Sequence to fold (242 residues):
Amino acid sequence: MTETTTTENQFSIKTRNKYLFLIASLTVFNIISFTVFIKTGGYDIHGNYLVKDTIGNLKTALICFLFSLPILSLLIGLLVAIFPYRQLEYSKKYFRSFLLTLRFINILFAIGLILIIIMTLLGWYPPKTADNSIESSTKEQAITTFKTEMKSLSDSANFYFDIAITEIEQGNDKNKVSDLVTPKILFFQNELDRKSRAFYQIATDAGLSKDEYEKVFEDLKLLFQPIADKNEKLKANGIDIK
Fold:
C-alpha cells in the first residue's frame, strides 16, 4: 500500500509537472515552427503561383496541436493504461498514459520540424526537384503557347501573301491586288508585332532567362523568313505592303 501511494505521489508531484511543462513547451515550439517553416505555397492547375498562406498555416497548427493530438493521445492512452503500473487503479494510470502518449507524439513532431528547419536553412526544403519540374513545365507552356500563336498568325499572313503573288503572276491589276490583300496582311503583321512585344512580360512571369528568351526568337526567325521573302517578291512586282 505504501509502495503504491509513493509511486502515485511521486508522479503527481514531480513527474506530472515536468511532463506538463515539456508538453506545453513542445506544443508552442511545434505551432511556431509549423506556421513559419511549412511551405504551403505552390502552383495551381493553370500554372499560377499561390503565395504561402501563413494565417492558414497557423490555423492548421492550432487545430492540430491543441485539439487533434490531445484527442488522439486520449484514445491511445486508453490502451496504453492497461499495461504499466498494474498496482494502480485504471483511472489513476490513465492520466499518466495520456501524458506519456502526448509527450511522445509531440516529440516526434518536434524532431520532424527540426529536420525541416535544418533543410530550409540549407536550401533543401521545399524539394528543388519538384519546384524545378513545375517551373520547367510553366516555361514550356509559355513558350509553346507563344509559338503556336505566332505560327497561326504567320500562316494567315502567308496565305494572303500567296494570294497576292498568285494574282500578280496571273497579270491582274496591281492596285486591285494591293487593295485586296494589304489590309489583311497588315492586320496579321501588327498582331505578330503586338504579341512579340507582349511576350516579354509573359516570359518574365514564367521565369525565362535572357538566353531562353532570345532562343525563342531565334527559333521564330525560320518561321518569319517566308513572310520576308514574299514581301520582297511583292515589292519587286510593284506592291509595297505598308
About this structure: Residues 131-236 form one domain. The chain is about 80% helix and 0% strand. Residues 128-169 form the longest helix (42 residues).
